[in-house]
Amino acid sequence: MRTHYLQANANGILLFVKLTPNARCDEVLGTMQGADGLVLGAKVRAIADKGKANKALIALVSKWLGVAKSNIDLKSGSKSRLKTLAISGDSDELASMLVEKLTN
Questions:
Q1: Is the residue at 21 inside a domain?
Q2: Which of 48, 75, 99, 104 is most buried, by the most CB atoms less than 10 A from its CB?
Q3: Contact 27/102 with Cβ under 8 angstroms?
Q4: Which of helix, strand or coil describes residue 65?
């Protein structure tokens, strides 16, 4: 069981997300307890059809964190609400940015 919503690795961080598609707005909700541990909650207006919600999630996280979409890759969960995003870059800097966004 994970105790945190992110994990540092050699190329950046892995971000564990619970996504709600077909919502009223695109929004990062903050951290929440998931079945496997802490996750970052997010919702997007896009429907879960042919990867539209996954693309919307990547666009949302990109804008929210201020990183390029090309630096974000869906590693797992393409057909699940629980996603793992790999965000490339400096892991310490990315983790700090996430914590700052979540505490403001």
A1: yes
A2: 48
A3: no
A4: helix
Pairing of strands 6-9, 37-43: unpaired
Rounded CA separation 67/32 (Å): 23
- Decide: 86 and 72 in contact? Cβ < 8 Å: yes
pLDDT of residue 34: 78
pLDDT value, residue 73: 98
Give the CATH number, domain containing residue 51.
Answer: 3.30.1200.10
Structural domain containing residue 45: 6-103
Q: How many structural domains is the chain composed of?
A: 1
CA distance 7 to 102: 16
pLDDT tens, position by position, 59-95: 999 999 999 999 999 999 999 999 999 999 999 999 9
Instruction: Assess if residue 94 is contained within a domain.
Output: yes
CB 89 within 8 A of CB 12: yes
